[in-house]
Write a structure and sequence with these properties.
The chain is an alpha/beta fold. Helix content is about 45%, strand content about 25%. The protein starts with a helix and ends with a helix.
């Protein structure tokens, strides 16, 4: 029966898991909140710099175009009614230019306002385009300084005063009065935009960038320094708190849903496997092991197959991990042993059966043999898989020694890929290894693991161990192994795993 949400949360352990999964995302997010704020500020700073760069380029281009358009309008250059009308035409004047003023060579002035204004500016920095100069108004307060573009034409001067409120409004859209921006054209006083003063008692953020602006082939140096502090942190923190709360709870909920789904899947698999054990649906398939020199069958490995009530064959990879995690691998192995026991008199050589650490630590194999007093024990051997680590080496060693005294033998399966390896060979006294298919597949390739294969073979021969190669599929692999002195071969090259009846036929025709 699948677990219900209610049933799951009734145990204290399950409640602990629920709490951890539910609130861990929140804890993690709040722990790294300051880092998130820093990242947010950086992203916004880059955004502001890009916006300023874009505005500088646009403003310069507009100042040039505006002066050229007004000239086309054919000013009288006397600051009379026509000149004033053209200068104050709002269709011509973009929002980024607050005032456009004409100063005649005789000193008379007129502007886009009702009356001309006095504009004191710093030195003019020449540009390379259409007699255009850039400057700033003179003011001891940098945040009140304004950028000017001055265009000279036949002794007359057009002055475009850039509207600082446009860019200030853009900053305030991001965060009201949170940013202080220092902008400097090379050779001109610094101009400050945004808030003139930023509180930085608890938090201080700075971002500075120097770069070359290129406008229609003209290159000039420009630098921007952005400062932010407590107000920005508080604003972002308020936004992040809500985001973290919502996202954290969502992530926690999803983690619990996934966990419950996997838990229910485990319970479902366990229930189905237990039912299959009850119905004796696990049967042995045999894969012969051949001596490649004598071409004799020396034995076979016993491989489990799940044959469902409908006749479907389910392969081990689909159920063994669930069986091992739930402890059901033990009764499956016992069921397999009982069926091999019935076939044993008809099997050639020895038959090796896969076992896990639990079989040894719980002394299950010696207990099984106690009920089989007439069994020819040297016809059964065991392959220790390394998917689960042996926890109690002493108990395992005791069980192995007891079985060896009875006449059985042990092999270490998939040597070189699991937990124990050389340690198992030394601690448990095993004298036979099986080389995993992963290494056999490197034969005939440049794979670096082929050096591992050669090392395993050299070790086995040096230690005078029985060495079996599994997963052998080609004649090239058989020949390579034979040249290395390995003659016990298991794999598709000679035979696939097969049920008992087919194995008997294989004996007759091999």
């Amino acid at each position: 029966m699948k677990l219900s949400m209610y049933g799951f949360y009734t145990s204290s352990k399950a409640m602990t898991i629920f709490m951890l999964l539910m609130f861990s995302p929140l804890v993690i997010l709040f722990t790294f909140k300051d880092i998130l704020v820093e990242k947010y500020v950086y992203v916004k700073s880059v955004e502001i710099v890009s916006e300023i760069e874009r505005q500088v380029i646009i403003n310069r281009k507009r100042a040039i175009r505006l002066s050229e358009v007004i000239l086309i309008k054919q000013l009288d250059f006397d600051c009379g009614e026509l000149d004033k009308k053209i200068l104050s035409d709002r269709d011509l004047l973009p929002a980024t230019i607050r005032v456009l003023q004409l100063e005649l060579k005789n000193g008379d002035k007129c502007s886009s306002l009702d009356s001309p204004i006095k504009i004191n500016h710093s030195k003019l920095i020449p540009t390379a385009h259409h007699d255009l100069f850039i400057s700033t108004t003179i003011n001891k307060f940098p945040h009140k300084r304004q950028i000017l573009y001055i265009y000279k034409y036949q002794g007359n001067t057009f002055t475009s005063l850039i509207n600082r409120s446009v860019i200030n409004e853009r900053f305030n859209e991001i965060c009201f009065n949170c940013f202080k921006i220092d902008m400097t054209h090379k050779g001109l006083p610094t101009v400050i935009r945004g808030s003139a003063n930023i509180d930085q008692d608890a938090h201080k953020y700075e971002y500075e960038r120097d770069f070359l602006l290129n406008i229609e082939g003209e290159t000039f140096e420009f630098s921007i320094s952005i400062n932010a502090g407590d107000l920005l942190f508080e604003e972002i923190q308020d936004e992040l708190n809500l985001f973290i709360l919502l996202f954290g709870l969502f992530a926690g909920s999803m983690a619990n849903i996934i966990y419950l789904a996997r838990l229910n899947a485990k319970v479902s698999h366990k229930r189905v496997i237990a039912l299959a054990i009850k119905n004796s649906e696990f049967i042995p398939y045999y894969q012969p092991i051949i001596n490649s020199i004598s071409h004799e069958v020396v034995g076979q490995e016993v491989l489990v197959r799940w044959i469902t009530g409908s006749g479907e064959v389910i392969y081990p990879d689909s159920f063994i991990p669930y069986a091992e995690d739930s402890g059901l691998i033990v009764p499956i192995t016992e069921q397999l042993l009982d069926k091999v026991y019935q076939d044993l008199d008809h099997l050639a050589g020895w038959s090796s059966i896969n076992i896990v650490a639990a079989h040894l630590e719980m002394e299950l194999l010696s207990k099984w043999f106690e009920g089989k007093p007439t069994i020819d024990k040297d016809k059964i051997c065991f392959e220790l898989t390394e998917r689960k680590r042996i926890v109690n080496i002493e108990l395992a060693k005791k069980e192995i020694n007891k079985l060896i005294e009875l006449g059985t033998t042990f092999k270490l399966d998939d040597f070189g890929t699991g937990y124990g390896g050389f340690n198992y060979l030394q601690e448990l006294g095993l004298r036979s290894i099986k080389i995993d298919k992963m290494f056999i597949d490197t034969i005939g390739t440049d794979d670096l693991k082929r050096n591992v294969l050669d090392a395993i073979i050299a070790f086995g021969k040096e230690a005078k161990m029985e060495v079996i190669a599994e997963g052998v599929e080609t004649k090239e692999q058989v020949d390579y192994l034979a040249n290395k002195g390995i003659f016990l071969i298991q794999g598709y090259y000679y035979a696939n795993p097969m049920p008992f009846d087919e194995l008997i036929e294989f004996y007759k025709t091999f």
